[in-house]
Amino acid sequence: MIGDFFGGVSPGDIFGFFANLAYGWIPYKVWELIGRGQSPVSRSPLNILKYVIACLVASVLCADLVGWADNVLVIRPFAMLGNVIIFNNMASALALSPFILAAVYPRVKKGRMLYTDVMPEVKLKPVGIRATGFAMLIAGETGRLDFRKSAFDRLVGADVSARVDDSRSIR
Amino acid sequence: MSELRLMWRNTRMVVLCAISAALYAAVLVPFKVVPLIPGVTELRPANAIPIVCSFLFGPARRGVPRSAT
Hints:
The complex is a heterodimer of chains A (171) and B (69).
Chain A: H1 2-7, H2 12-34, H3 45-72, H4 78-95, H5 97-110, H6 115-118, H7 127-170
Chain B: H1 2-6, H2 11-28, E1 35-37, E2 41-42, H3 48-57
């Protein structure tokens, strides 16, 4: 919201709030499930893949929520905004976050400031429930891919038909 | 989901939440002048902060949400 006050506030920002809340909430929830207690700064190929999955799932959910809301509010088309947000989020998550994490995570862990240290009273739900939630998340995001494709087709189709109409009117 | 409610009873988590939000805003605002697609979005290195804070502070990562990410 602070960022919006510097760039212009719109009704879509309400959905942006929840989308970015999910963007920060999903990675550690997914990591709790697929990370199996390992550190996110581990450099094994499998852990890197898990890290990418956690970031991608969060980015797609954020993009879907913002893109859908802006599309419904007729502010920006879903096909464009959804893809831009995924690219923007993933670029930062892959190019910057690993280095910041590698520098900060061991120190925060040593200082016992990780959320698991600060809030030991929070207990994890059974793996089955968390896995079901993760599967539902993946299924929902995969389903949205179809919507994104159809929205893109509509966008391109509208553009092409507009050009055809223009060329006819010129003739 | 319950941890999102429980964290507000923990002073250290509230402080971490405020620090995360301040850090996000501090990185976000200077780059508002570097648009990727004008009117849609700008260069956003600040998007690295929520991921980092999510892995570190979990539910305290509330950040400073915005629509055009």
